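Weekly puzzle thread! Below is a chain. First person to post its structure in token form gets bragging rights.
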Amino acid sequence: MEPNLKTQISVISVVDYYELYQAGLKDAIVLDLGQAQTYSRGHLPGAVHLPVTRIVRQDGYATGLMPSKAALIELAREYGLCSGKTIYLYDDEGGGWAGRMAWILDILGVEKVVYIDGGLRAWMYAGYPLSSQREVPEASDAPEELNTYPCIQLEELQKVLEENQPLNLIDARSAGEYNGVRQFAQRAGRIPGAQHYEWTRAMRLDSDYTLRSLDVIRSELQTLYSDMSNQFVVYCQTHHRSGLSYLMCRLLGLNVRAYAGSWSEWGNNADVPIQND
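Winning reply:
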């Protein structure tokens, strides 16, 4: 399946965002995907808070599924996501929730998305002032249809593995989860064929939580995957941590999809194969 995405995703520094805001940010929506209490204490100026509960859905053991079509259309309408404005994203943890939101915006077919690198942590690290003004979203028309290409379901992923189709599978969890030492489902381990690239590896944990050099990340992925032109699929436990992995791949121009069911679904299904050490 070929990618069918019209969304352009790019990244800017907090320095660039500060300058844009000071100059008068126009035709833009700024989304804060951090915790509500953190937003209340202070956030990037101009940002409206979007609760992450709006971008997940639970069904049985699977706790990070894509919301229903109706829920996504209502979200897009309420927050004006399909108004043609540029959507700026950030969170308070280094990109996991912001990355998942970028995935949601791909599904909605938003045309231009910008990740504010490092989000709140980078903003505070740089010493910029926080805003306490609570912004209110402006509603707009919403799309009638969704683009589900960015999503891969359990059955399709299982078929890809059974038929040995080319696939670059990224496990964004911790090494302990990947190796089956730490268990957060009925079974421990990983999806067969998955390579480990923990989500935090993509960011500068020792400073401002911004992304490391994309060229360096690409080089590291090339050591794990022999053919970078293959389709990538990212997962973690609930497609929260792998949200950053998705964003990372999109910024690298890779053909990437997300398995939102992730290990909370796969690891609790006795009918699918697992691999562990």
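Puzzle host: Confirmed. Bonus trivia for everyone else. The CA atoms of residues 177 and 183 lie 6 Å apart.
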